[in-house]
Amino acid sequence: MIVIRFVMVLCLSAFSSLHAATVDLQRIMVDKVPVEDVRLLDGLVEAVNRSTVSSQASGRIESIYFDIDDYVKRGDVLLKIRDTTQRAAMNSAEAVFQETQARLDGAHSEYDRTKEIYAKKLVAKSKLDQAEAAFKSATARRGAAKAGVEEAQEALAQTTVKAPYSGIVTERHVEIGEMASIGTHLMSGLSLEALRITVEVPQSLMPTVRSGAKMQGVLPDGRLLESKHVTLFPIANSTSHAFKMRLALPEGQHDLYPGMFIKVSVSVGSSEKIVIPLESVAYRSEVTGVYVVDTNGRVSLRHIRLGQRQSEARVEVLSGLRSGESIALDPVRAGVVLKQQGRDGK
C-alpha cells in the first residue's frame, strides 16, 4: 500500500511539473493575415562606380603603389609617372612669370611717374598714352604668364595618379618602367559602397511595375533590401522582349559583391496567408518546423514549409499549419517540454 501511494505521488509530481512547464510556455494563435503576393525575378548585383583610370601625362612609369584586389581610399596615390619634362616646363613657366612681373612693376612705376608729370603740364599727352599702353601690355603679358604657370602645374600634377573614389583595384594595365602616353589605361577598379541590382522585367509584368509596385532585393538568407531608387529602361530587348530595370541599393551593403545573383520581389497584389514570428521556427537537421501546442497542452514538433519573409521578424508559412492552432514562441523551451513528455509517457 505504501509503495502504491509512493508511485502515485511521483506520477502526480511529474504531471504537475510537466503541466507547470507547459503553462509557462509562451504561445501564439496562428491566423491568416493580409500578405503581399510577390513575383520573384532573377537579378545581378553590379557596382555603380566602375571605371578605368587613364593617363593624362606622358612619361615612364616610376612607381606603382597598389595591385589587384587592394583596397584604396579616395585620393590615394595609385602610381607615379616620371615628371622630369613636366617639372622643367613648370620651372620655365615660373621664370617667364617672374620676368613679366618685373616688367609689369616697371611699367606701373613709369605710368605713375608720367601721370604726375603730365598733371604738372610738363609732358605731352602722347607720352602719357604711351606709358598707359605699356602698362596695359605688361599686365596682359603677366596674365598670360600666370596662365602658363597654372597649366604647367596641372601638367605636373597629372604625373601623380590618384584614386577617384574608394574601392577595389580589379586590373593593373601597366608595369614599372613602361612608357605611358595620354590615354594609356593604368588601373581599373570599382566601388563596393554604391551597388545596384539589374533585372530583366517580363513584358507581362510591365503594367504592374509602371503602376509603382513595391520592389525589394531578397538576400540568400531571406532578408529584404529596400531600394532607394528604381530606374526602368523604356526599350525592350529585341530577343527576350524583357525590359531592363535598375534598383539602387542603400550604401554599406558589405555582404553583397558585384557579380552576385540575387532575387528581386515585385508586389503583384495581396491575399490572406499564415505568417508566424521567425523566432518560433525550429531547425532540426534538415527539418524546418514549429512546436504545436494542442488543447490539452501536449507539445509536438510539426514540419512546415516556409515561404517569403514578410519583414525582419516574420515569415510566411506555405504548408504545415492551420488557422486556430497554437505554436510555441520559444522552440528551445518547447523542445525541453517535449522531451519531458517523452520521459513521463504523457
Tell me what the structure shows:
Strands 2, 11, 12, 13, 14, 15, 16, 20 and 21 form a nine-stranded antiparallel beta sheet that branches. Strands 1, 17, 18, 19 and 22 form a five-stranded antiparallel beta sheet that branches. The chain is elongated and about 125 Å long. It has about 350 residues and is an alpha+beta fold. It folds into two domains: about 180 residues, Beta Barrel (Elongation Factor Tu (Ef-tu), domain 3), CATH 2.40.30.170; about 80 residues, Helix hairpin bin (Helix Hairpins), CATH 1.10.287.470. It is built from five helices and 22 strands. The N terminus is likely disordered.
Secondary structure elements and pairings:
Blueprint: H1 2-24, E1 27-29, E2 32-47, E3 50-54, E4 59-64, E5 71-72, E6 77-81, H2 84-119, H3 125-157, E7 160-162, E8 167-172, E9 179-180, E10 185-190, E11 195-201, H4 206-210, E12 215-218, E13 224-226, E14 229-236, E15 243-248, E16 261-277, E17 282-284, E18 287-293, E19 299-303, E20 305-309, E21 314-319, E22 326-328, H5 331-344
State the name of the first-level CATH class of the largest domain: Mainly Beta
Mean pLDDT: 87
- Along the chain, the helix and strand elements come as HEEEEEEHHEEEEEHEEEEEEEEEEEH
Helix content: 25-40%
**Rough outline:** elongated
* End-to-end separation: 25 Å
In short:
InterPro entries: Beta-barrel_RND_2 (IPR058792), MdtA-like_BSH (IPR058625), MdtA-like_C (IPR058627), MdtA-like_HH (IPR058624), RND_pump_MFP (IPR006143). With 346 residues, the protein is of the alpha+beta class.
